[in-house]
Design brief:
This protein has 429 residues and is α+β, with helices and mostly antiparallel strands. It has 16 helices and 6 strands. Helix 1 packs parallel to helix 7 and helix 5 crosses helix 6.
């Protein structure tokens, strides 16, 4: 039996980072969801055989979940100390701690991983509570039905000379509104039941269902497209998936894999790739983000700033609902169509990191000069290799609501993570 401490925590962290649901991972590994849930909460040991199946389903090496080498453990301890600069932890003595007390050192590193997962879960739940359209619809239906029942009951109580015909009508209204009330309550309970760890399994908008499906298939064009489409339930989401696959086929035909590998080895600049193959810069960004094994993320928005597409990467998870951080190069590019915007972004710790971000905006005139100009911007997100570090990385976040940077001049609202007064919050207009 594997005895690695908090191995379930590591499995859960990798599953969340991969965008997989517990049900998807359990099916891929051939175990029950309840058994996987116990493993992830460190309540059951996992055999090497099951661990191997789970690792293959997550596309990682099984060794990643076994005991870590001392060098990696020391690096993790130093990263933990850097995440909490005011703690007074002696980062230079991390090697001594790992050598003398390896168990405690491993626990500290695993707790940091656990905290990072909790922060991601809190961010997702905050997004749903604040902006989920299904919650808003359920509450609206519930309040509407309650108001109708109250109004009808008031008429029946206060009006003594109602004719039998009108009484029957009001009784029918009561019956119908009561059914609406029950339906609204059931919808709200269903939403609350799915607001925990497996929130992504709840009813989703077509765009969300598309992105969840892409996450399950690894963000690559599936070999058997018809079989892959059967995994999508919603009709509109299937239409979006067909459109995405058609676009992906066109991008692959325009930028073959062999040529892309050569271009990536030479630096992988999407503007140079676009010029070499005669395609748009956004097409080059998509090929980089959607090739097998890619570690790059991609975000697309329109001129309103609405996020149209999100491929997250560990440490940089765009919000599903609500507004993103206004400091992103993505929004700078919106004001500069046809001009490249490059920045190294530093996401808040713990759980964040440094990322090389390349943004590009394209404008089109679908109605000609007589119509409006439509703009679409894309942000390619890649882990910063440090080969050409910027002198001052851009300190940004995902969205103001969960960003701990209190003094940010671009802050729109107080963060739920900060305890200090938000002095930099803009006054309401």
């Amino acid at each position: 039996m594997s005895r690695a401490p908090l191995i379930g925590t590591r499995l859960r962290e990798r599953r969340i980072a991969a965008g997989m649901r517990q049900g998807d991972l359990s099916r891929a590994a051939g175990i029950s969801p309840s058994y996987l849930n116990l493993i992830e909460h460190n309540r059951r040991n996992v055999t090497p055989e099951v661990l191997d199946r789970l690792a293959r389903a997550l596309d990682v090496a099984p060794e990643e979940f076994s005991e870590r080498d001392p060098g990696a453990l020391v690096a993790e301890l130093r990263a933990v100390a850097a995440s909490f600069p005011g703690s007074g932890a002696e980062a230079d003595r991390a090697g001594e701690l790992a050598g003398r007390f390896p168990g405690w050192a491993q626990l500290i590193a695993d707790l940091q991983t656990h905290i990072s997962g909790l922060r991601q879960g809190m961010a997702a739940l905050n997004d749903r509570l604040g902006h989920d359209p299904h919650l808003s619809a359920a509450l609206h239906e519930l309040l509407s039905a309650l108001s109708a029942v109250r109004a009808t009951a008031g008429i029946l109580v206060e009006t003594e000379d109602l004719s039998p015909d009108w009484q029957r009508r009001f009784h029918l209204n009561l019956h119908q509104d009561s059914e609406r009330l029950v339906g609204g309550a059931e919808a709200l309970v269903s939403w609350l039941d799915h607001s925990g760890e497996e929130a992504e399994s709840a009813v989703m908008a077509p765009q969300d269902e598309l992105e969840a499906w892409l996450s399950r298939i690894g963000w690559v064009l599936p070999e058997e497209e018809a079989v892959a489409l059967d995994q999508i339930q919603g009709r509109d989401a299937k239409a979006l998936a067909r459109g995405w696959m058609g676009q992906a086929r066109g991008d692959i035909a325009a930028i073959p894999e062999a040529g892309l590998r050569t271009a990536l080895a030479a630096g992988g600049d999407p503007a140079l790739i676009a010029a070499r193959f005669g395609v748009s810069v956004q097409a080059a960004m998509r090929r980089i983000a959607f090739r097998p094994g890619s570690v790059a993320g991609l975000v697309v928005c329109d001129a309103s700033g609405t996020l149209l597409f999100r491929k997250p990467i560990p440490g940089f998870a765009p919000p599903r609902y609500g507004a993103a951080c206004p400091l992103w190069p993505l929004f700078t590019a919106l004001a500069r169509p046809g001009q490249p915007v490059r920045a190294v972004m530093e996401m808040p710790q713990p759980g964040g990191g440094r990322f090389l971000c390349l943004a590009w905006c394209e404008a089109r005139l679908p109605w000609g000069f007589a119509g409006p100009e439509l703009r679409e911007a894309a942000l390619l997100i890649q882990p910063d290799s440090g080969s050409a570090p910027d002198p001052a990385p851009l300190a940004a976040g995902t969205t103001c609501r969960i960003c701990p940077r209190d003094a940010c001049p671009a802050r729109r609202e107080p963060s739920i993570l900060g305890d200090a007064p938000q002095q930099a919050t803009k006054p309401p207009r």
